[in-house]
Amino acid sequence: MITGQCECRKVRFEIHGEINDYSHCHCSQCRRMHGAAFATFGGVKKRDFKFISGADEITHYASSDDHDRLFCRACGSNILVDLGAEPDARYVAMGVIDGNPELPEGYHIFVGSKAPWYAFDNPGEQFHTAPEE
Fold it and tell me: What pLDDT digit, counting tens, does each position of 29-46 carry?
């Protein structure tokens, strides 16, 4: 089992499954939302993800027609992104996951809009936009 929590610890969750996707997103939305050069996400099956406390502290932001971002209304921690095109998946912000879970090989997306001041020193396949399905 994988666990996680927001900074103020009001929102806590469990993942009863594995992280099956591991990506670093360099799009301008993720950079602004996370205040960093990129945002790192672990993809999990939606049915494996469960809030164990603080579900009432979650608020949503539709950053596009297809992206619903969930974060803690108390501390602002980014919790996850739900994609309309992938209704059976959740993309959990790795920064709120506890410990050191096993991860598949990572990759970078939207490197075409990466921060100009960031230099790659992180291995992994790179995609100018989204990877081809």
Answer: 999 999 999 999 999 999
